[in-house]
Amino acid sequence: MNNIQDRLLDSNIKSKINLRNIDIDLELISKDCESRWPGCRVSIDDYEIFNGKVVNSQEIVTSYNSQKDTANINIEYYGKTNFDTKTNEQGTIISNQILSINQFKLNGVDIIKNGLIYKAIFQMNLDPAKQEYFSKHNIETVHHDYHFYENGIWSLQIQIPVLTYIINTTKHLETFERTPYNDIMMTIMDKLDI
Q1: Do 155 and 170 belong together in one domain?
Q2: Which CATH number is 37's domain given?
Q3: Domain assignment of residue 151, given as a range
Q4: What span, in angstroms and rounded, lies between the C-alpha atoms of 26 and 74?
């Protein structure tokens, strides 16, 4: 932490900010195509948290203690086939299997609200025919969104300790110093019972 944060935060708060835990509170939502639901695998590095179908919604709450300095949170969307997108005679999509992140709190901090979620990358995993179609029509297969309409892996690399990483990643520049956003600090303080 920098000197300003050292002066502003007491030792109790600083010790809690430096914890090596990764607390995830995640809600995934989905849409089916003719009762076929998306498959999903959620992991922190190689530690699998969830693997199964997401039928309407799936809440995932877990805590993981990392001994590494970085971790990858991964959400894999799998199992979608060409039968999971239906079009009408005009070619308009009328039914499409989709998986989305509806809520994501990382160590009690809403990473959708604070924009940290856009640090993640979603890389589509397409069969050769679809890859050719996407390429021909200049459709991006890598993006920073959290709504997935094709198979692929969404990955967010974070640093440990998580709360320090969130503060440092989402802070904004003031004219005289760097300080964290007030709502992020309030959320962290609430989470830490301060």
Answers
A1: no
A2: 2.60.60.40
A3: 22-160
A4: 12
Higher per-residue pLDDT: 54 or 118: 54
What's the domain count of the chain? 2
Q: Which residues of 157-172 are buried (b: 16+ CB within 10 A; e: fewer)?
A: ebebbbbbbbbebbbe
Whether residue 99 sits in one domain with residue 186:
no
93 with 185, same domain?
no
Same domain membership, residue 49 and residue 125? yes
Q: Which tokens is 9 given?
A: 């935060």
Task: Between 139 and 101, name the one with better pLDDT.
Answer: 101
* pLDDT, average across residues 97-106: 96
Query: What pTM does this model have?
Result: 0.80
Other CB atoms within 10 Å distance of the CB of residue 37: 19
* Beta-carbon-side half-sphere exposure of residue 87 (alpha carbons within 13 Å): 6
* CA atoms in the 13 A half-sphere facing the CB of 193: 0
